[in-house]
Every structure is written in structure tokens, then in C-alpha cells.
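Lab notebook page, bench 4
Experiment: in silico fold of construct C2
Operator: M.H.
Input chain length: 345 residues
Purpose: comparison with the prior construct
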Amino acid sequence: MIVWINGTFGAGKTSTARELTGILPDSTLFDPETIGDALRVLLPHKRLAEVSDYQDLPSWRRLVVDTAAALLAEVGGVLVVPMTLLRQEYRDEIFGGLAARRIPVRHVLLAPAETILRERIATREEPGAPQEVDLRVRRWAYEHIPAYRQALGWLTADAHVVDNGPLTVRETARRIAEAVRTDAAPVCDIVQTPEPVRETVAAGVLLFDDRDRVLLVDPTYKPGWEFPGGVVEAGEAPACAGVREVAEELGLTLDGSPRLLVVDWEPPQHPAYGGLRLLFDGGRLSAAEIAALRLPGPELRAWRFVTEPEAAGLLPPHRYERLRWSLRARERAHPLYLEAGRPSP
């Protein structure tokens, strides 16, 4: 199990995590900041200059999951992880990756009042560091308060909140330990999608409203928005898989077989294996059908109809290209074969 202690810089995550490892039986401290330190040494300066935070590196997020899984396999018990996660898509990627490895996560947010937080930042010192480093760390912490404030909406909905403003570090750790023991800090409800071990075939279905906007869904277990759909099971026809996934994800039963729009070969890109991705036209939904749409809590957090330009800002680039060509195929009533999101010559 992992106890992930979240909160903005200066909230007291690391000191609380150290204290918590002395309270929770069989617990080990794992600070993902050490992975960031290693990547600063390992990666070329040119690559590091392209990001402002090591969390923006896909390798960091992947290594956090892999290292946590390796540590738990080595020592067992509980990993206590003090790490700020303010971007929901990074939380989805990391927690989803852990869920795929059957590792339960209890998400705790330290949320002192902002006045107390600023007071703590003002007196924060890095042990043994020169004064200019202290000033740089404080400035970094202050600069992240607006992003933290903006993230509070999803953070407070996702995590067990502990107001540690009036608490000592010891009291905060005891409060978390009690929340873990009593399930007041529950295991994150994320669908456990096994990681593929070979190329896969996946089927998605495009659904439209009366303005020809397309429906996208927001998975809880991976970053970015997606089309309704999923992996085709052994012995299952892709069109049937798309219909099944729409019923499971949205509570919507499609009449008949949806029409094929594109077949896209997605090349392997480590750690993904790639495979065939098919998109079908599920047709235009009536107002009654839209009103009846329902989401499964552990798998999807939201759905929305979007225009093609709006989809460009929500979908990862390769999925957007697949959507773009699917819409062209729909206009022409002629399916397309794609490779890596582009029509094959």
C-alpha cells in the first residue's frame, strides 16, 4: 500500500512523512524528489531546458511508478510518499499506473490555511544550504501557491484533507495514521487496468449531439481525455467491443452495429506496445439519450460534447489526429486506414 502525502511546497509533507514512518508498522519512506535529482544528472541539458519542472518529464512520472512498485516488491509493507501533485493529469497517470500494478493508494492532502503556509515558507531553511539557496526555495514555494489554490477543487474531492495548520508534525502524522487505520482516508477508487504485455486492438465509438459535437470522456486512471471504448477482448469482434464499452462506460445501449471510420496502426513507443486502434460512428444521440448518460465512478470522472477545435485542447496529439481523420471519413462516408494518426499513401 502507498500513503501519498500531497500538498503545496511548505505544507510539511516531508517532515510529516518521516514522522509517519515511525508510527505506521512496516513503513518505508520513498521521496520521488530523488528521482528528479537523478534525472538532472542523467538527462542531457538540452532536454532539461525544455521543462520548468521535472514532473513535466514523462520519464520522471514513469520512474516514480516503477520505483514504487520495485520498492514494495523488495520490502513490502507501506510506502509513505511525500510529493506535491498539483496537475490532475499527472495524478491520473501515476495513480493509474500504480493501480495497474494492483498497488492501492491512500491519498492525503495537507491543507494549512494560506496565512500559516506563508509564515512557514518565510522561515523555511534548507539544512546546510547557503542563504541564496534558502531564498530560491522560498521564492519557488511562493510562486506555486496560485497553482495550488487553483488545484484545490480537484484535490479536496480526491484526497482525504488534513488541516495541519494548528497541528505539530507529530500530531499530523498521528492524524494520518488514524485515518489510514479507520479507512477515513480510503483507498483511491481507480479502475485497475492491467498493463498490456503485447500489441493490443482497441475499439472506440464516436457519439454526436444535434450540433455535431463529439462526446469525449475523462478517465480517472490515465492523463488526457478519450473516446468511449476500450481494448477488444479475446474472441470479440471490434465493433461489438465498442458497443459493449459504450454500455459499460455511459449506460447507453446502441442499436445495431456502428459504422467503421478509421483503422489506425499505433506504433510501439516504450513503455507502450501500440497496436490497432479502430474508431466507429455511433451516430447522433437524442436529447433523451444524452440526459440518461451515466458514468462509472472508478473509471470516468466526466463527459462532455466538444467541437473539433475544442478537442484539440483536450486530447493528446495522437488521439486528436485520429479524431480529425475520423471526422473527415464521416463527412466522406468512406473509412480510412491510418498509420500513427496519418492516412497511409
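Observations: Residues 122 and 227 are 46 Å apart (CA to CA). The chain has a mean pLDDT of 91.
Next step: discuss at group meeting.
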